[in-house]
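Sync notes, pocket subgroup
Present: LS, DG
LS reminded everyone that the earlier model was apo-only. Rerun requested with succinic acid included. Inputs:
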Amino acid sequence: MTDFTKLRITTDYLIIGSGLAGLTAALEASKHGSVLVVTKGKAEECNTRYAQGGIACVIDSDDTFDAHVKDTLKAGAGLCHEDVVREIVRSAPARIHDLEGYGMKFTRRGEVRETTTSDQAREFDLGREGGHSARRILHAGDITGREVSDVLIARCRENPNITILENHLAVDLITCRHFAWKGPNRCYGAYVMDTQTHDIKTILSHFTLLATGGAGKVYLCTCNPDVACGDGIAMAWRASAEIANMEFYQFHPTILFHPKAKSFLISEAVRGEGAILKIRRHGKFVEFMQNYHELKSLAPRDIVARAIDNELKRTGEECAWLDITHKSEEFLRKRFPNIFNECLKFGINMAKDYIPVVPAAHYCCGGVRTDVNGVTNIKDLYAIGECGCTGLHGANRLASNSLLEAMVVGYNAVIHSLTASRSENIVPPADVPDWKHGDAVNSDEMIVITHNWDEIRRFMWDYVGIVRSNKRLERAKNRIRMLRLEIEKYYWDFTVTPDLIELRNLASVAEMIIDSAIARPESIGLHYNLDCPKYDGSYHPKDTIIQRPLKPNIWFE
Ligand code: FAD
Ligand code: SIN
């Protein structure tokens, strides 16, 4: 039995993150070896848990894989990798079948709608969301993520080959940059901090899977939980992984606007059931989406978020409004129990009142560049789920394709690892050094962390948000350059703490988003720059790749 309180631990699979991607991989990997999942808070705390709309999957006999592929490519605005899209879409039914095998229960039609036969009542209830040409979203009411997360955590906890270490924050991947190694860049595991003792453990693994999710905290307004700081992307970048398409940050159009609501999402599925977006003009509520797209309130997310942003700027209003008052309270309570109750807490009855909404940062379409198996350019390192960039989403993710990708790529990565050779270029574990830090002392200026944290999130929102310009990006670049230097110095001068580690990662991710946005020559999908020509479809746009030069044996840089 491995003693997980030790400072040096060895495992077959190290999985960093306990969302859908990480836990799907853990359950599959447990069939082939020992699995250690490290997660920085409670296992439940992840983006997955907050997912409402559901998982896109072709199930209905009237729907086709081709239609799902076409919708994904259209939303992705010309930048998706079509082979990846096809494979992920085709793999969906098999992975949904696995999830059901683990105990996941998706809502059936009879639970929410009138049906005429018992067969119809037993069919999956399929939701509709922006950019989808058919109803194809499997869901568990409006708490799909919570149900998925609970089921997978329960299966992992009862599995003797899987250990979940909570309150363990990965600080850095162990690669040849930590010792004098001349071979190809390879990952040997990670340095991981026990956030309760602040000990930093050396965890050695045959395969390391980054499943650290997104980076919504880089923006002032986000519906992501506090864990979403882009840690995995920043760690991979420091290890010289290729990072792709970071300019494409998705803003969800409809986050509940209320001073006491902490970033609560009003699912796109509400618009899928007919909710209409309105704006208040001269005291009257008017529809506006017909001026922006033929699908009106159900247009792809980038278009809806930009339209709301524009209407707010034009009218000076603080929020837009969602009107679903034409549906009965009985239906809304059954179909959206969580959203209904949450709105009610703030005095909003969805069946009678309009819901105040604003856009907020939601999903990172870029990330560590991989293929459809999560394979990165670093040997034995995989990136799966939101922290990876397979090419599925292109310049804009189609709704409910993210949970799908997390499941498919999480599973694929493990299958791929079975074909990878373990003996090639292995450094004896004894040669891997333990964590080192400079002559660190405790900081007496914690204000530096909180100030820089707030400053980054504010200027990212103002200058690198829904609508960008060359001037705004240049301003953001100047600020991040200065802050990154300050944070790096602070990092090496003082004892590391979880806050400082997250701040350092957040600053790196902010810089990657800014650099990628500056490098992008056209306005396309989620990247909308007033000074760039709009992509017209006449050529193949390129992915934006960022990579840090590889330097063996360099710790302090
Ligand atoms: P996550 O679920 O975010 O898990 C990441 C894990 O990594 C967490 O456990 C975190 O604690 C851990 N971690 C991070 N850094 C470290 C570190 N340094 N050390 C250790 N652990 C670390 N997508 C859909 O397809 N359908 C939806 O309906 C939908 N609704 C959404 C609603 C909301 C409010 C949000 C925020 C997102 C939604 N999404 C939806 C997006 C989707 O939920 C996420 O993209 C997806 O869950 C990501 O899964 P993941 O496993 O990659 O990451
Ligand atoms: C939502 O329910 O609106 C979110 C769906 C998604 O992000 O895919």
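DG: Residues 52-53, 267-269, 399-400, 402 surround succinic acid (ligand 2) (CB under 6 Å).
LS: The longest strand covers residues 200-210.
Action: DG to write up.
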